[in-house]
# Entry
Amino acid sequence: MSLRPRILLIGPLPRAGHASGGTQVSFGELVENFHASGRFEIELVDTTREHVYEHSWRAKLSNLTAMLRVVREVMTRGRDCDLVFFNASARGLLIGGPLVCTAARRMGKPVIVRAFGGGLDEALASAPFAVRRAVERTVLRADLLALQTNALCSHFAGVPAAFHFPTTRRMERVQRARSQTCRRFLFLSQLRPEKGIREALHAIELAPEGCTLSVHGPLMHGVSLSDFAGASRSRYGGELERADVARVLAEHDALVFPSYWDGEGLPGVIVEALQSSLPVIAARWRSVPELVESGVNGLLVEPRSAESLAQALRRVASDDALFARLCAGAEASAREHSAEQWHAKLEARMVRVLSPQSADDIAAPSPRRAVHRARRS
# Structure
């Protein structure tokens, strides 16, 4: 093995003209972290597709076709690599995980699997028996299995290779004049009904006078501009460029995130808000309470309840002392999601997989740009 091991890194990158979600942003950050480290050479396979179909036979066909292309890349380019690192959503793991893991094993390559989101347990439980068995014999036997939430780590406690790898973000620090009152609320997410956008639009109308809600994100299936008709306190600002996220967060007082989406894990936008010292008002849903502790760095509300959300908005808007405590709590909790800290732990695990007898012999070089050969799949 060379001094700088070569990794076949597979996952979805953000792409201009496409609605980017947390999986694309997290994978893009992972690539940046490898570049900053310079410890590995990177062969990159981008799994973002030109066309994305929802809830139809076209979606199934598109997913299967994309995975077959990835397997082809693994079988051809993976031969010159030391390790295969597959990153996908729970659905992507069910479709492509067994194929990628099997291809890597046939070439004698160790394989790492990273599951985005918090729904792998439920997706696996509801999958057909044949799919479930295939995942158990391949994905759950990978050399490393990175899981986003503590809940998933507990569920898969019997999988020896499973480990906790939470959502992190590299956030640009933007100077902001901290407000003494909470009036400027922000909704930043893909705009899906399950993300709670309609509850947020209703709740802000019930908030105290002077409160406003800025909404940013791509319009997805089930939501349109007509949802903003008659909204006197809300403004839709479109989708943000990645470079503008830190600035927009700095212009607001709190993040509103009433999501009840089934695949929710540790949402990256919550991590970004905490790193910007913004408290988060979120639904008590799945693993979100692993990030948001009610009364410490935000407030938790009942899912699907505009009234519960409105009560939380009224509470933080009318209690300046509470708002100050939540801001301080947000800043303190953000340190737990340092990208540098968690990436260093990941690389240490990777080195042990590659060379368990002599992990310390692979010294981390001074930061330099890793080799990056990107091909879109």
